[in-house]
Specification:
The protein is of the alpha/beta class and 381 residues long. The chain contains 13 helices and twelve strands. It has a seven-stranded mixed beta sheet, with helices on both faces. Strands 10-11-12 form a three-stranded antiparallel beta sheet, with no helix packed on it. It is globular. The mean pLDDT is 96. The structure holds pyridoxal-5'-phosphate (PLP). Pyridoxal-5'-phosphate binds next to helix 3 and helix 4.
């Protein structure tokens, strides 16, 4: 029997280990010079002269972004149904109302007609998700909004590195803010972590202030500036969302490796697409030639008249292969049922029982990739 293969494994090695060891030996483990260097390198990486603000999760980053833009009670924020709960939960965290809309059948990204139909006088922001790392066309989103003053926030948890109509995701050419996740199975990881990118200096400043208790300068400054080290002033009821130097040191190594890890995932995706092309399943949509997908997830969809998803996942497990489901759409969760009815998200509802994700991570060997594809064919029976 072959060794069981987990659905996902972070790609961390000796370089990350020694970067962490250096931080631990330095005696400074929380937010400091590593975090700052990571922010600068990240901003350079995505381009667009953005400022990058490191936080301890994408959820924290999205919350800070909404908070910094002054979104709150009485405001509506449009989010896609096909996403992780955090995309909608942060809207509740600031006291606003998430308006959950349907998705496109091919990409499972937000459907722009559904989005346009959901716009009201109260719409203050739209959070788009680049599902699996395939960018949503932000120029088309902008065109659909027209000249209304609505903030555009990218939940870019899947999208490092990725390029769409607006250039590199994170450069914010057509958005106000983009937020990345460095959770354990995201495209780069810091254990847990996230990064806010924005071209707006005022939003960046507020996010920096609120990520660490609303203190007017962060702990590191206190030890390096000329003011007495004990002095600080609290000017807002802030949060505790800062990234540690231990995480940032891992992130700096991961960022340098981001493109080579993406290339490996792309290679695996292309193998799956050719090996599974004639199977009775729906494969990921084609990517426009001048775009680049982060290939965070490989999502396939079963046919409604074919093998049942539970059965398929069970068969994969019997063959020693972990799978996952991205996502159980929001409308299927108890928390969001009162916000959205299945009939208002017909596409998401029609796909909700069909989608599943198969392993696609940079540490997979060619042998493992072939084994997964063969197991899929076998499970389809
Ligand atoms: C993982 C994920 C998040 C949350 O990221 P954290 O860093 O775990 O907070 C948000 N949105 C989407 C689409 C995700 O996949």
């Amino acid at each position: 029997m072959l060794k069981p293969m987990p659905f996902a494994v972070p790609d961390l090695g000796e370089e990350e280990i020694s970067a962490v060891a250096d931080v631990v030996r330095s005696g400074w483990v929380t937010s400091g010079s590593q975090m700052r260097a990571f922010e600068t390198e990240f901003a350079d990486y995505v381009g667009g002269d953005v400022q990058a603000i490191a936080v301890n999760s994408a959820t924290a980053g999205l919350h800070l972004a909404l908070d910094a833009m002054g979104i709150g009670p009485g405001d509506e924020v449009i989010v896609p149904d096909w996403t992780f709960t955090a995309t909608a939960a942060v809207v509740c965290h600031v006291g606003a109302t998430p308006i959950i809309v349907d998705v496109d059948r091919d990409t499972l990204n937000m459907d722009l007609e559904a989005m346009a139909a959901a716009l009201t006088e109260r719409t203050k922001a739209i959070i788009v998700v680049h599902f699996t790392g395939l960018p949503l066309d932000l120029k088309a989103v902008r065109a659909a909004i027209g000249d209304r003053e609505i903030a555009l926030i990218e939940d870019a948890a899947h999208a490092l590195p990725a390029t769409g109509t607006s250039g590199r995701v994170g450069s914010c050419a057509d958005s106000d803010v983009a937020v990345f996740s460095f959770g354990p199975i995201k495209t780069i990881t810091t254990g847990e972590g996230g990064m806010i990118c924005t071209r707006h200096a005022d939003i960046a400043e507020k996010c920096r202030l609120m990520r660490l208790h609303g203190i007017d300068r962060d702990a590191f400054d206190r030890y390096t500036s000329s003011r007495p080290s004990w002095f600080y002033d609290v000017i807002a009821p802030g949060y505790k969302y800062n990234m540690t130097d231990i995480s940032a040191a891992i992130g700096r190594v991961q960022l340098r490796r981001a493109e080579s890890m993406r290339l490996r995932r792309e290679e695996i995706a292309n193998y799956y697409i050719s090996a599974l092309g004639d199977q009775p399943i729906v494969l990921p949509p084609a990517i426009p030639s001048d775009w680049c997908s982060a290939w965070h997830l490989f999502v396939l969809r079963l046919r409604p008249d074919g093998v049942d998803r539970n059965q398929f996942i069970g068969s994969m497990a019997e063959q020693g292969i972990g799978t996952s489901v991205h996502f159980i759409p929001l409308h299927r969760h108890d928390q969001w049922k009162s916000h959205v009815s299945p009939s208002s998200v017909p596409v998401a509802e029609s796909q909700a029982d069909l989608a599943l994700s198969i392993p696609m991570y940079s540490r997979m060997t060619d042998e493992q990739v072939e084994r997964v594809a063969a197991a899929v064919i076998n499970a389809l029976g």
